[in-house]
Design goal:
mainly alpha, 0% strand
Amino acid sequence: MSPHKIDALLEIMARLRNRDSGCPWDVEQTFASIAPYTIEEAYEVAEAIEQGDMDALKDELGDLLLQVVFHSRMAQEQESFDFNDVIAAISDKMIRRHPHVFGSEKERDAATQTASWEKQKAEERSAKANGAPVSALEGVTVGLPGLTRALKLQKRAARVGFDWPEARQVLDKVSEEIGELREVMDSDEGSASPEARATRQERLADEFGDTLFALANLARHLDIDPEAALRGTNAKFERRFRIVEQRLAEDSINPADAPLDLMESHWQKAKETERS
């Protein structure tokens, strides 16, 4: 068995899924149980790209490919489709969506190509709806991370003119949403009944969600990927907090016992160190 061909990987997965001689864990998996791993592997690919680690990217792309092979094998067992059908479907789609490359000669500027791409996707969505009216928001996957899905919904709405013209107008909307969140936070819950407190919590979640949605919209207007920006901030927080822990450890202080003002002082020093 050659380790360098896709057929070898397909055969490995077939053996792993063999109910008589395969791996018990692999055999018991379903589409639903594997889906979280598929999402996780996609994020690990993104992380390797952000870190510029090509060796890790090679490994993570292999892990992601394994997810495709795994799902395809389970579908084959149900006689729904197989790996070759997956390859054929994406190949046909890419040819269909790039008439300027595979079809007749057309203008090749980026705007025209983007319009052609979106037109093809819209036609595909319409075909799936069997001719019924199709919302501009149709096909935005529910399973996407919240900020990413917000961005895609806003882009779709913007295509039909539902959008703020300027980024500063969106910033004003962010301020408005923060104000509404603050109003709910400032509301008196001390003497409220359990039912009233539950309603207040629902309102807090609702206003907080509105604020995040407005921030995602601002990111779009500023040409920022909000998920990537947040991942960067997460990494920055982790890096700086580890410095705080290290400096506390040098003074034999447990972080759980350290006063907040001391930790804040170390935090500010960690920021200054990074900036310098």
